[in-house]
């Protein structure tokens, strides 16, 4: 068996390891999780070497996740008031590495503050892009808008709106699979790295997608979504701690 064929660990609604000394702290607020099913063979070539698509019953997913980032801070320092608070919208895929760690791979990360974009691109090699963005709440409906500024293509973005429904007391297998992600995979010099996170269990609500005009998924190199999404969820958010990236358990940190 090759290393990329190792079995992934179980999907758990709780972080497998608490991060005692976080590299970054932040809050993720007013999240919309919108997902479409996709054939794993269509996205395998978009993942970093050393990872393969994570699948549930033979299917993987592309996610459009819009939210507000808040109180971003280094180590245990208080969050930065202005530069640490901004809307963000991510296009992400689902991955598993040779050590069985499930994660996400970001294909694009649009954010409304230039400084975090530059730092994310330079320091972590993440696909951050600077966009004009807003998150507005009208009763039970949350509206997310974006229009890309740099590095382009300029104007790519769109508008999505979700209407919050009832609280989910016991998330389904698919809902856990799409949201209980305790790290991300990203390519660094010398190989793929895994950046862990931990946070309380997601408070999840069923949601209705009342509007979806977006070009972010196609701009991220993926086929444009066809048909209705298979899952639409809303969460008011959680506080998050991010650990230091490492290539494998026990390996030297990057």
Structural class: mainly beta
The CATH architecture would be Beta Barrel
The strands making up the biggest β-sheet line up spatially as: 1-3-4-5-6-7-8-11-12
Binned strand content: over 45%
CATH topology tier name: Acetoacetate decarboxylase-like
- Measured distance between first and last alpha carbons: 27 Å
In quaternary terms, these chains amount to: single chain
The beta-strand count equals: 12
Number of helices: 4
Dominant shape: globular
Tally of structural domains = 1
Q: CATH homologous superfamily, by name?
A: Acetoacetate decarboxylase-like
Which value, in Å, is the CA radius of gyration? 17 Å
Task: State the CATH class.
Answer: Mainly Beta
Q: Helix fraction?
A: 10-25%
Protein name: DUF2071 domain-containing protein
Organism: Streptomyces yaizuensis
InterPro entries: ADC_dom_sf, DUF2071
Keywords, separated by commas or semicolons:
mainly beta, disordered C terminus
Summarize, please.
By secondary structure, the chain is mainly beta. Helix content is 10%, strand content 48%. The chain has a nine-stranded mixed barrel with strand order 1-3-4-5-6-7-8-11-12.
Question: Can you describe what's shown?
Answer:
This is DUF2071 domain-containing protein. It holds the Pfam family DUF2071. It comes from Streptomyces yaizuensis. There is one protein chain. By secondary structure, the protein is mainly beta. It has a single domain, classed as Acetoacetate decarboxylase-like (Beta Barrel), CATH 2.40.400. Helix content is 10%, strand content 48%. The protein has 4 helices and 12 strands; from the N terminus they run βαββββαβββαβββαβ. The protein has helices spanning 40-43, 114-124, 173-179, 216-219; strands at residues 24-38, 51-53, 60-74, 86-97, 102-111, 128-138, 141-150, 157-167, 183-188, 191-198, 205-214, 231-242. The relative contact order is 0.22. Mean pLDDT is 92; it is low at 249-254.
């Amino acid at each position: 068996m090759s290393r990329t064929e190792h079995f992934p660990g179980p999907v758990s609604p709780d972080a497998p390891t608490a991060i005692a000394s976080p590299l970054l702290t932040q809050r993720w607020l007013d999240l919309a999780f919108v997902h479409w099913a996709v054939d794993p063979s269509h996205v395998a070539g978009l993942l970093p070497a050393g990872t393969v698509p994570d699948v549930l019953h033979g299917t993987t997913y592309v996610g459009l996740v819009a939210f507000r980032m808040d109180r971003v801070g280094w180590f245990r320092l208080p969050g930065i008031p202005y530069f640490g608070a901004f809307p963000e919208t991510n296009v992400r895929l689902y991955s598993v590495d040779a050590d069985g760690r499930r994660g996400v791979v970001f294909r694009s990360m649009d954010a409304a503050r230039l400084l975090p974009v530059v730092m994310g691109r330079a320091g972590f090699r993440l696909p951050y892009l600077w966009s004009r963005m807003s998150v507005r709440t009208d009763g039970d409906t949350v509206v997310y808008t974006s229009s890309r500024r740099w590095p382009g293509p300029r104007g790519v973005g769109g508008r999505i709106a979700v209407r919050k429904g009832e609280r989910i007391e016991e998330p389904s297998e698919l809902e856990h699979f799409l949201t209980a992600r305790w790290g991300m995979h990203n390519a660094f010099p010398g190989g793929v790295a895994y950046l862990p996170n931990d946070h309380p269990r997601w408070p999840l609500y069923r949601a209705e997608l009342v509007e979806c005009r977006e070009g972010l998924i196609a701009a991220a190199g993926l086929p444009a979504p066809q048909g209705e999404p298979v899952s639409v969820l809303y969460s008011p958010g959680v506080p998050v701690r991010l650990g230091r990236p490492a290539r494998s358990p026990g390996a030297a940190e990057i």
